[in-house]
TrEMBL record:
3'-phosphoadenylyl sulfate binds at residues 37, 45, 162-166. Residues 25-182 form the Sulfotransferase domain. The keyword Transferase applies. Belongs to the sulfotransferase 1 family. GO terms for molecular function: [heparan sulfate]-glucosamine 3-sulfotransferase activity. InterPro entries: NST/OST, P-loop_NTPase, Sulfotransferase_dom. It comes from the Eukaryota. The keyword Glycoprotein applies. Its EC number is 2.8.2.-. This is Sulfotransferase. Disulfide bonds join 145-157. Keywords: Disulfide bond, Glycoprotein, Transferase.
Length: 199
């Protein structure tokens, strides 16, 4: 019988302080896959998702800053906090070696899904079964879609909650966030040995 791999997906694992110790206690051989994207876009996407559920929340700008005049960023706001990848990774590296962690680029998952999934398959020790021929780019959605969904002859695209239009954020605020994340991004590139090109 072929060996099977079991997996579980939860976006909050990566940023949960207790998660590495708990997973390590369960199985120290576990392979970890994390999808990361530009933390600034991630924060805006996060805010957009919350806004779609709670339209009355304050503006992105007012949540970003502790003090708008000094430009002091509120790092306790989860949309900001989650994007400090180097800090979260540090926590995982107390338990797991880098070779057991794969970071998938969210940007490349859109521009080159087969390439990125090639890395995932290699990391999991699987044959490269998913390739370019499984995808087509849907211009309307702005995302790649599967030519055929599993067990079906029909295409499959991501659901309508993906690719929500992000609100326009003042360029000054975006720039301030870019400056804030830069040192953490550099540290993250160093730790992973991979330049994600977010600057
Ligand atoms: N497969 C794949 N490839 C590329 N990008 C993807 C993919 N799946 C989800 N996304 C984008 O991730 C953002 C958060 O998605 P979700 O709404 O699914 O978030 S959550 O997992 O429910 O928290 C959201 O980003 P934005 O659309 O830019 O806001 C999703 O579009």
């Amino acid at each position: 019988m072929p060996k099977t791999l079991e997996g579980q997906i939860t976006p909050s694992y990566f940023v949960t302080k207790e998660a590495p110790a708990r997973i390590y206690a369960m199985s120290r051989e576990t392979k970890l896959i994390v999808v990361v994207r530009d933390p600034v876009t991630r924060a805006i996407s996060d805010y957009t998702q919350t806004l779609s559920k709670k339209p009355d929340i304050p503006t992105f700008e007012s949540l970003t800053f502790k003090n708008r005049t000094t430009g002091l960023i509120d790092t306790s706001w989860s949309a900001v906090q989650i994007g400090i990848y180097a800090k979260h990774l540090d926590n995982w590296l107390q338990f797991f070696p880098m070779r057991q962690i794969l970071f998938v680029s969210g940007e490349r998952l859109i521009s080159d899904p087969a390439g990125e999934l090639g890395r995932v398959q290699d990391f999991l020790g699987l044959k490269r079964i998913i390739t370019d021929k499984h995808f087509y780019f849907n211009q309307t959605k702005g995302f790649p879609c599967l030519k055929k969904a599993e067990g079906s002859s029909k295409p499959h695209c991501l659901g309508k909650t993906k690719g929500r239009t992000h609100p326009n954020i003042h360029p000054e605020v975006v720039q301030r966030l870019r400056d804030f994340y830069r040192p953490f991004n550099m540290k993250f590139y160093q730790m992973t040995g991979h330049n994600f090109g977010w600057d």
